[in-house]
Write a structure and sequence with these properties.
A 4-stranded antiparallel β-sheet has the order 2-3-1-4, with helices on one face. Strand 2 and strand 3 form a beta hairpin. It has 3 helices and 4 strands; from the N terminus they run H-E-H-E-E-H-E. The N and C termini lie far apart (58 Å). It folds into 2 domains: 32 residues; 75 residues, 2-Layer Sandwich (Alpha-Beta Plaits). It has 111 residues and is an alpha+beta fold. The longest helix is centred in the first third of the chain and has 30 residues.
Length: 111
């Protein structure tokens, strides 16, 4: 009888141990930082504050965009985004929506 109780307690401890390991594994996986891409684009059509605001708001509404800023003076857009969530086609669709023809794209990985 005592042996059965000890075995039952060991099974419970083993189950608790396994659950703890699984929980820790998922917590670590969830907290790993995503690799971001910084995109800098020249936009010759960027000459009004209205277009500036529209582009920033549109890109910020995409899931995966961390930051988006534009400059009327240099006619550029800078955006940090998660490439797993934001595809190049989504970026191009936003530019097409606002009738922009980007000049050059510059990409850099952020760590």
């Amino acid at each position: 009888m005592a042996v059965e109780i000890i075995l039952q307690n060991m099974k419970q401890l083993f189950s608790l141990f396994i659950i703890s390991i699984l929980f820790a594994a998922f917590a670590v996986q969830k907290n790993t930082s995503a690799e971001l891409i910084q995109l800098v684009v020249t936009i010759p059509e960027l000459n009004s504050s209205e277009l500036q605001k529209n582009l920033e708001n549109e890109f910020k509404s995409l899931g995966g965009v961390q930051i988006c800023e534009t400059s009327l003076m240099t006619k550029t857009l800078m955006m940090n985004y998660d490439p797993r969530k934001v595809r190049q086609s989504k970026i191009e669709n936003v530019f097409q929506k606002w009738e922009c023809n980007p000049g050059s794209y510059s990409y850099q990985k952020l760590y």
